[in-house]
C-alpha cells in the first residue's frame, strides 16, 4: 500500500511539476487554458455585473462557472501538496501563494456573502484577486527561470543604478520645489518628487508643468536622463541572460533525477549515480 502511494506521488510529481515530458507540458497547457478562460470570464462578469447588478447570493451562470473553475484549481492545489516532497515548503513558496490566491476568494465570498458596507472594499478586492490566475500561465514559460536568474545575478548593479536614480529624483524635486514653488503647482516636496518621477519616465501627465526658464532646464535634463532608465537596466539584464544561456548550453542534466549543476568533468550524477550524457541536447 505504501509502495503504491509512493509510486502515485512520483507519477503525479512528474505530471504536475516536470515540464520536460510531453504529458507534463500538456497538463501545464491545460491548467494555463483554464486560468486564461477563468480570467476572461471574470472580465465578462465585471462588465455584465455592472449593468445587471449581479451578486454572489444569486445563482447565475457566472457563479456556476466560478464554482467549476474553483473546483478544478482546488483539486490541482491539493494534488500538488500531495505529491510535493515537503508540502509545507510548497505552501509558503511563490507558486503556493499564487495557487492559494486563485481559490481563496471564492470560498471567502461563499462563506460570507453578506459583507457589510464597511467591508465592501475588502469584498471587491477578494473578487478582483481572482485575476491572479493569469500568473499560472508563467509556468508555461521555461525561459522565465533564465530571466529570473539574470535579474538575481545583476541585482547589485540594478540596485546601484536605481538608488542613483532615486537620489536624482529627490534632488530634482527639491530643486523644482525651490525654483517653481506652490504658485506653479509644486506645493510640497513630495509633489515635486512625483513630478520628477513622471518626467524621468517620459510619461508626462501634464498635471504639473514648469513655467520658469530654470525649471524647464531641470525638466530637460530629467527627460534626457529618462532614456537611460530604460537603456541601462535592459543592457545589464541582457548581458546576464546571454551568460546564463551560455551556461545552460554547457550544463548537463541527469536523465533520471533531473539534477543539474554537475562538474564539467563529471561522468555520473552527484545525486543518484546515473551516467550523465556527454552532450546535452539543445
Automatic annotation (TrEMBL):
Membrane topology: Multi-pass membrane protein
Pfam families documented for this protein: Ion_trans (PF00520)
Native source organism of the sequence: Kluyvera genomosp. 2
PANTHER family, per the entry: POTASSIUM VOLTAGE-GATED CHANNEL PROTEIN SHAB (PTHR11537:SF254), VOLTAGE-GATED POTASSIUM CHANNEL (PTHR11537)
Keywords: Ion channel, Ion transport, Membrane, Potassium, Potassium channel, Potassium transport, Transmembrane, Transmembrane helix, Transport, Voltage-gated channel
Transmembrane portions of the chain: 29-49, 61-79, 91-113, 159-179, 217-239
InterPro entries in alphabetical order: Ion_trans_dom, VG_K_chnl, Volt_channel_dom_sf
Full protein name: Transporter
Amino acid at each position: 500500500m505504501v509502495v503504491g502511494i509512493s509510486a502515485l506521488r512520483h507519477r503525479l510529481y512528474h505530471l504536475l511539476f516536470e515540464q520536460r515530458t510531453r504529458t507534463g507540458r500538456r497538463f501545464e497547457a491545460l491548467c494555463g487554458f483554464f486560468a486564461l478562460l477563468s480570467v476572461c470570464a471574470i472580465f465578462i462578469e465585471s462588465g455584465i455585473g455592472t449593468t445587471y447588478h449581479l451578486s454572489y447570493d444569486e445563482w447565475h451562470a457566472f457563479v456556476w462557472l466560478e464554482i467549476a473553475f474553483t473546483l478544478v484549481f482546488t483539486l490541482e492545489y491539493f494534488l500538488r501538496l500531495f505529491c510535493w516532497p515537503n508540502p509545507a515548503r510548497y505552501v509558503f513558496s511563490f507558486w503556493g501563494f499564487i495557487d492559494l490566491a486563485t481559490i481563496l476568494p471564492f470560498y471567502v465570498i461563499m462563506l460570507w456573502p453578506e459583507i457589510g458596507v464597511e467591508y465592501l472594499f475588502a469584498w471587491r478586492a477578494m473578487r478582483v484577486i481572482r485575476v491572479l490566475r493569469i500568473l499560472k500561465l508563467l509556468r508555461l514559460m521555461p525561459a522565465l527561470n533564465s530571466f529570473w536568474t539574470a535579474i538575481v545575478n545583476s541585482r547589485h548593479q540594478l540596485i546601484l543604478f536605481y538608488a542613483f536614480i532615486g537620489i536624482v529624483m529627490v534632488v530634482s524635486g527639491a530643486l523644482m520645489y525651490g525654483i517653481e514653488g506652490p504658485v506653479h503647482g509644486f506645493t510640497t516636496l513630495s509633489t515635486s518628487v512625483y513630478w520628477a518621477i513622471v518626467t524621468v519616465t517620459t510619461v508626462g501627465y501634464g498635471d504639473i508643468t514648469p513655467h520658469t526658464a530654470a525649471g524647464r532646464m531641470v525638466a530637460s535634463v530629467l527627460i534626457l536622463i529618462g532614456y537611460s532608465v530604460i537603456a541601462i537596466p535592459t543592457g545589464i539584464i541582457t548581458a546576464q541572460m546571454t551568460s546564463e544561456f551560455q551556461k545552460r548550453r554547457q550544463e548537463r542534466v541527469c536523465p533520471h533525477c533531473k539534477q543539474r549543476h554537475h562538474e564539467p568533468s563529471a561522468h555520473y550524477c552527484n545525486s543518484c549515480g546515473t551516467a550523465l550524457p556527454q552532450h546535452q541536447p539543445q
